[in-house]
Amino acid sequence: MGCYPLFCCTDWAGFGSDIQRVKDRYVTISVVADPFAPLPTADLSRYLQLVRPFKKHFIIDVSGSSDGHINRHHRYYAKRALKQIQVTVADHPKACLDDWVRLYAILVKRHRLRGIKAFSRTAFSIQFEVPGLVIFRASRNRRTIGMHLWYLQSGIACSHLSAFDQEGYSLRAAYALHWSAIVQERAWRETDAMVFPYLSADGPQTKR
Q: How many domains does the chain have?
């Protein structure tokens, strides 16, 4: 499996045979296939009755050094925010649970989320146990004002959720966290190591 709602496989060659083996057990099988899967649409159509696009998402190839793919205004807001806040990668994600639940409660109230979208603390405690979780944390005066959760799988980073308090919204911390995630992923690719930088407007200040 993969980051909700994506369906991921370590061996896509067996996808067809797996579907054939279980199709008679269920009334419906719905799959949101990993967009990076080495499986063309034609092959999916062989095993599923209906195949169609599901939403559109922005994908960034961090192997390049240029930030030209990032909107100019977004770069401006990110660098401006990074002059006022500090962004770090959490060394121990599970230690961030209390702060995350506090921030997400603000999001739930702000957007009037209901049902499965209004995740409980229990749901998040389970999610925080999933391998590959990476948390970027925005703080000011040693207080957490925003967080962005990502999951790493098979060399791909998938954005999961982000949440902020009022100060985080005011300082546009979301731009700083997205920018930092891109810079961090590029650093990991270049060094082939887990590098945890403290991000500033001038770039990463690396700590190992």
A: 2
